[in-house]
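Hi D.,

Good news: the full-assembly prediction came through. Inputs first.
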Amino acid sequence: EAGVTQFPSHSVIEKGQTVTLRCDPISGHDNLYWYRRVMGKEIKFLLHFVKESKQDESGMPNNRFLAERTGGTYSTLKVQPAELEDSGVYFCASSQGSRTEQFFGPGTRLTVL
Amino acid sequence: GDSVTQMEGPVTLSEEAFLTINCTYTATGYPSLFWYVQYPGEGLQLLLKATKADDKGSNKGFEATYRKETTSFHLEKGSVQVSDSAVYFCALFSSGGSYIPTFGRGTSLIVHP
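Then the structure:
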């Protein structure tokens, strides 16, 4: 069974540019989560989808971040325009139920110059 | 709010040495406690967990005991291997409300032959 996959694995962009990160959850997992780890700090929750609906987006830092989940399958996280402080590793996770084990992807390392 | 504090890394050990990575937490109620591991180039994997006081989680030679009196969940292994080199994250899931984990900052472990 394929795990959670994320694309790209690395992205280097300049301040002011736009970047879109993609997450493909485990097939059949209705719950999809985005997290971010800024260098050396805690992994912080960004938002939670149940199917295509946003269940909780309390962790989204500001309106430069837009997450979507088309048809309840894969999800994208767009940062527009990117700022220096957006640099970090963005993790995606999925789970069958909202209170069951989350399976994490390898993360996308975003560097904003 | 909930918080998790881990010892600063990196922790550098020789193969077969004893490992302890300290983790303490602050939470209301009775959280569940977890250790995740991230091997190079891979996603976060659940290493072990404990859901109530005095429970011991164990996996792959690693152990951690849920100590409510000291609010701790220290990770230990009697004899580390080079293949244990990774980043280890302590996390808690609150006993009520959403099932979103609170993570520590992560501790990098480097094991030399």
